[in-house]
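Researcher: Let's run the pair from yesterday's discussion. Sequence first, then tokens, for each.
Model: Starting with the first of the pair.
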Amino acid sequence: METALDIRELNEKIEKESAFIDLIVREMDKVIIGQRYMVDRMLIALLSNGHLLLEGVPGLAKTLAIKSLSATVDGAFSRIQFTPDLLPADLVGTQIYQVKKDEFTIRKGPVFANFVLADEINRAPAKVQSALLEAMQEKQVTIGDTTFDLPTPFLVLATQNPVEQEGTYPLPEAQVDRFMLKVVLDYPKKEEEKLIIRQNISPTTYPTTSKILKPEDITRARNVVREVYMDEKIEQYIIDIVFATRNPEEYGLAKFKDLISFGGSPRASINLALAAKAYAFIKRRGYVIPEDVRAICKDVLRHRIGVTYEAEAENITSENIIDEILNHVEVP
């Protein structure tokens, strides 16, 4: 058990180690107006060694936000525009035959970077999307007989447009589950949009972010995030939330039994715990409280709950189910 003294020391350590969060947010604010929710979720993914899927209508600065975040870290960045004619080799790389040497050499693809922006990921077919599976989970890529480790940190930040059906391919469940968070973006507020217009029609040069962190700073921060204290009651709370997505009738939610086709996997529990720790870190706290879990719950679970045709017919979404679960599961 952690003592009050240990918690106090941990709080002081977190306070010191999380100082760079304000610097990143300040840099992002130069370019991105509003959208603090999105920026926080991007930082949570970065600090938790997880991947992020951003969904929103065109023009909400999804791509700009990802490029701006990567620009604050002195690491390699690559942008892959997903299109229907893309091939797996275009992502991971391929073997090329050298006639003069009479041998095959390996040319690495754009996935070998610290930050990989998979722009409009649902515009490429499943075979291309699945080329990312090994990279996202094992942080490695196999080309031919050779396996290569990816650089650290390695983060896939993908965007998708929810409004178009033509020329898009829904992400398979296995692919979606690799994303730690799925963030759904909304339009900016009136005042924010006024500032966005001013910034974009201004005669002065467009602001850019500066490099303020090195890759090793991210690695150190990730280690500190894992030190954030999580009480056993909070662990049980996370377990109850995830199990309620699998067996809703055990939590007084029998009405969802025929509306959920599948619930969250153990990966959901792990990601919810890690994301809650990262959220506490961003809030400069050395311990997780139930509100941290609740704040991040939708982003971790919305893409991990399968809804049946009956649910779709009744206009019940995974978000509605999560709201009900959070209302029914006892808070420690």
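Model: Moving on to the second of the pair.
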Amino acid sequence: MSEKRDLVLTTVQGVDFDYLAPFVSSLKRTGFRGRLVVFASAMKGDAVSQLERHGVTVVSFPFISKRLREFFFWPFWPFWRRLFALNAFPEFKEKLAHVALPLFYRRHLIYLQYLRAHRLEYDRVFLTDARDVFFQADPFSWNPPPGLHLFLLDSSHTVQASQLDVNWTKNQFGRTDASRHLDKIASCAGTTFGDTEEVITYLTKMIATSLGAKNLRRVTGGDDQGVHNYLIYENLLPVVTLHPNRRSAVLTTTTMTMSEIPLNAAGLITSESGEVIPVIHQYDRLPELKQHLLGRLNDTGLKG
């Protein structure tokens, strides 16, 4: 089970309390004993107050407009990319990176800076999406061993099947032989477990790789999954375990149908071996599954 030195990190922008209520409520019901930190941009004060009343630590960060990136960074990206590649000026470069990177990439820098400042306070970390994540059990109840733990999609969801991954592998990292990776099962970047030091290593590589893109203008929301898979299949992560879908602590349901999702007598989703899966990801892609999970919250869901 979780301990006080366990940490869950997530990022949201421009959302209200109701957006996060299923995520927070389902986590709270599991008996999670660690800390949940929500990095929030453009969140109204009443939503922040509601979250804090439920034990959530809310850390605000400034919104950076896309227009600023379009004007200041994208036309001159070859220059900025060379600057980011230099070993000098780390603090200055990170300030620039907050402006240059879209939120899907910037969230990794936000996490990295937070963990650097609090690295001695936590032993285990879970980086996660918020909108489409539901907790059936304490996310640390499977007691992940040291190292980094990443989660694969179903075997049919290869790198080749994901246009995001293909774009990154072929277009952004042209020096890479993409054909070596296209038949590999893609890993989802929305859920990542690890001990604190390995997560810091992972985030450091995610940021450095993202800032080495040939052209940030060509990236779209979610393309950080391409970077994530690039690091995996180029063997750039030293201590990593890849967990198959349907047989691990995270179930990603995006390619599944409701008939493929096993339920036990209590209505909980189980793995192929019959164990309750702590984290259900992308459940909102299946309306019937969303209705089933949110229905389980009943009257015990969070209220303002």
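Researcher: Give me one sentence on the second I can quote.
Model: Residues 6-63+101-300 form a domain with the Spore Coat Polysaccharide Biosynthesis Protein SpsA; Chain A fold (CATH 3.90.550.10).
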